[in-house]
Amino acid sequence: MTGAPGTRAVRRGRPGYDLETLLAVAVEEFNRRGYDGTSMEDLSRKLGITKSAIYHHVSGKQELLRLAVNRALDGLFAEVDKLGAVSGRAVDRLEHLVRGSVAVLAEQLPFVTLLLRVRGNTQVERDALDRRREFDHIVGDLVAQAAAEGDLRADIDPPTAARLLFGMINSLVEWYRPRGGTGAAELADIVATVAFDGLRVRGRSN
């Protein structure tokens, strides 16, 4: 059955948004309002669709959160998976991971922002924090190996150095915006230079 001329047929039970668009809007609202402060009603109003249309795609708000934080985590662990193909020393693998992590942050900025804001109030958040700790251990091990090989300072506790290193990277979510200005590749170069070479000019007298 067709509608009247000039009208569009309505597919009942099908929302006007695909899952990717729904997820993008949900992440935007979670970051703006906070996950706990965002209801399914808020999302339906923002999207201009009914809650039942949202449930066509996901079982509820927690599934949206799970999909969102896993988007960021999967990106980070994809960079870890590349380390086996990186030749050289541990410091080379560490720099590769730093650069890759900056790229993930730049490409998936809203998702990484949300990941960094989870506090463990739900099982989804606790699972995300477990994966973040796993990633942190990988970074810490690389720092320790690089220090043992003489490429990083041995007088700095490796777990502390790893936290400071990725604390700098994670702080990018507070100010970095992909459109205009510094691109992802240039940003990765800057972070790697500051992390591994420092800011001080060497060999100059006062």
Write the layout of secondary structure elements.
Blueprint: H1 19-33, H2 40-47, H3 51-55, H4 61-81, H5 90-107, H6 109-117, H7 123-148, H8 158-170, H9 184-196
Helix pairs in contact: 1-2, 1-4, 1-6, 4-5, 4-6, 4-7, 5-6, 5-7, 5-9, 7-8
Give structural notes:
The protein has 206 residues and is mainly alpha-helical. It has helices at 19-33, 40-47, 51-55, 61-81, 90-107, 109-117, 123-148, 158-170, 184-196. Helix 1 packs across helix 2 and helix 1 packs across helix 6.
Features of this protein?
206 residues, mainly alpha, elongated, disordered N terminus
Separation, N- and C-terminal Cα atoms: 85 Å
Largest beta-sheet details: none
Query: What is the structural class?
Result: mainly alpha
- The sequence of SSEs as H and E is HHHHHHHHH
The whole-angstrom Rg is: 22 Å
Number of strands: 0
Q: Would you summarize the structure shown here?
A:
The protein is mainly alpha-helical.
